[in-house]
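INTERNAL AUDIT FORM
Audit reference: QA-55
Scope: verify that the stored structure record matches its stored sequence.
Auditor: D.O.
Record contents follow.
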Amino acid sequence: MTANDVIESQAADWLARRDGDRWTPEQQQALDDWLAASTLHRVAYLRLDSAWQRADRLRALQAAERPQPVVPRVPAALLARPWMRRSLGGLALALMAWVLVGDFNLAKPDTERHATAVGKREAVALADGSRLTLNTATQVRTAVTTQERKVWLDQGEAFFDIAHDASRPFVVIVGTQRVTVLGTKFSLRRDGERLQVAVLEGRVKVQSDSAEAAVLTRDDAAVADARNLLVTKKTPQQLQASLSWLQGKLIFDQISLAEAAQQFNRYSHRQLVIADPAAAQIRIGGSFDAGNVEAFARLLHVGFGLEVQQQGDEIRISSPAS
């Protein structure tokens, strides 16, 4: 059995269970996760679902508009002939292809992809009135329909300004974690399977497969992974500083130079390299242009007397020679 055969079998199994009598919210969540895991999963599922729906519609139309057609009986003697079996088999395959391909083309998923390059930002307007602002090196997928509102944060950081709609909760999927809102403003940053959340307005619920769900409100921040969830309260000034990238700025409040370098390196192909532990521990504060790492390096030289050397795509920062 090929990999495609396995996926087709799994999709058929999901459809059979979905149409059963005991479909639960937990099963729906498991199906959503399976669909989100691979484009091949979604294609197989939509194709089979479309075929089954079309078959149901055809049966309904036949019953409502005309009597059931009489299917002529093929004599056993003809069925025994190879050419007849080949003809019937070819007809069956042609009908199946017509149903699958025709209906699948009518049921394309309404999913859009958006991405930003290193050092760039992009504003994305969704059909429901919500707005996303994507930070540097960010990738998202969006699916906003009359039934649901979903976004997948595959990489990077984004700020969400969500239009209120109680009938369609807005769900952001970040790996194994889900953030659910009705209407609010918040930011999400993904580093691998690690998620950082900051809430500017409203309420959001953060949940994962293992950790207990938590509801965050205004000025709350959280750090979560697949097993843990830590919630802290931020001052309005701290929260605004964490969102300074929306204006293309980086605001530091006495953080180490090593941490400041990590932040700058997200926004430029030219990377800051801190060459020694003494320089790495210097505390930095102030507001800086996120896209101008060269100007930041000059300030380090003027303000702290640090050595600055450019080597290709690296700017090496070191303590002054004794």
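Auditor finding: record pair retrieved intact. The CA atoms of residues 305 and 320 lie 7 Å apart.
Action required: none
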